[in-house]
Description:
Blueprint: H1 12-23, E1 24-25, E2 28-38, E3 44-49, H2 63-66, E4 73-75, H3 77-91, E5 95-99, H4 107-118, E6 123-128, H5 131-135, H6 137-143, E7 149-156, H7 160-167, H8 176-186, E8 191-196, H9 202-215, E9 224-226, E10 228-229, H10 232-240, E11 248-249
Parallel strand pairs: 3-5, 5-6, 6-7, 7-8, 8-9, 10-11
Antiparallel strand pairs: 1-2, 2-3, 2-4
Helix pairs in contact: 3-4, 6-8
The structure holds iron/sulfur cluster (SF4).
Amino acid sequence: xxxxxxxxGYCPIELGTAMEKIVVDxxxxxxxQLGRTLRFYGGTTSATEVGCNLRCKFCFxxxxxxxxxRTGRFYTPEQxxxxxxxxxxxHGHKTISASASEGTLGRDHLFELLDLVEQxxxxxxxxxxxxxxxADSDFARQLARYKNLHVRVSLKGSNEDEYHELTGxxxxxxxxxxxxxxxxxxxxxxCNACVMASFSSDVSLAGLKHALTDLHxxxxxxxxxxxxxxxxxVRERLKRYQLTPTKSRRLSRQQPNQPEAA
Length: 262
Ligand code: SF4
């Protein structure tokens, strides 16, 4: 008799709605800081936002994801933009972003922030796990009016079983970042995909590449393959969940910055 996989696990869209009640207040969103230098993109400035609609067991972002009610302060889009711009101008960075949580929570806040970026010399990198963008094609169309924007859609695992094990979310929602990429490409929004592959086999990764090629020929050219960094909290959490990465990066003195997340 065939075994039908159950769709146990939380719904990221429902979790996102619940998180927005905690980390969004009108056009304000919670952050823990507004402008630090990261080594990515040859040097970039990033704010640390609070609140995510996934609970990835490998996530380096601790309190912003796991304790959003007790973490950070509310900031207006203007405060966030000027915090980012100040650090970026001081260091000559061309890109700015927010990281360590999910970038699409608080849509009004995001749009007002992007309005300010649009009048500036910067490009904003929207870090997202693709859940909200996949569930609502209007969102991508609304983003299409911004030219100083690039969306980085991060897939958590190479197939829905990996995704479910890594995030605890229902398997069904694994399709959402694929839909997000499709909506963004259809709306002509600059975007690329990346995948957390630390728990993937060569076979599952090859399957993912096949699925992405089916979605859009050429998308593999900009695919980023990510591996976790074993920060102490990450190592501890993975041990608790009995998850062993096949590939990871060790924390070193040459690697002082945390990676981007969503
Ligand atoms: S890795 Fe990204 S999507 Fe996953 S919990 Fe952390 S911030 Fe959220």
